[in-house]
Amino acid sequence: MLIFRYHSLLGFVLRSTNIRNSFEIFDPLLRISKCLLGPDARLVLSSEWSFSPFTFSQVFPELPGFVFIGLPASESNNALIIPAAGHELGHTVWQLKGLQAKIERQLTTLVVHYCEKNWNEFQACFNNSPDKSLLTTDMLLISQWTPALRRALSQSEEVFCDFLGVRLFGESFLHSFEYLIAPNVGRSRDPYYPGIAKRAQYMVRCAEAVGAHQPTDFAKRFSETPASLTRVEKFLLAASDSATEQIVQSLIETVIEVADNAGTPRFDAQTIERAFNDFKDVLPASDGHSLADVVNAAWKAYLTEDFWSEKTVPNARKFEVISELAFKSIEVLEYQTRVWDYQKRTMKKDVAEV
Question: pTM of the entire structure?
Answer without folding.
Answer: 0.91
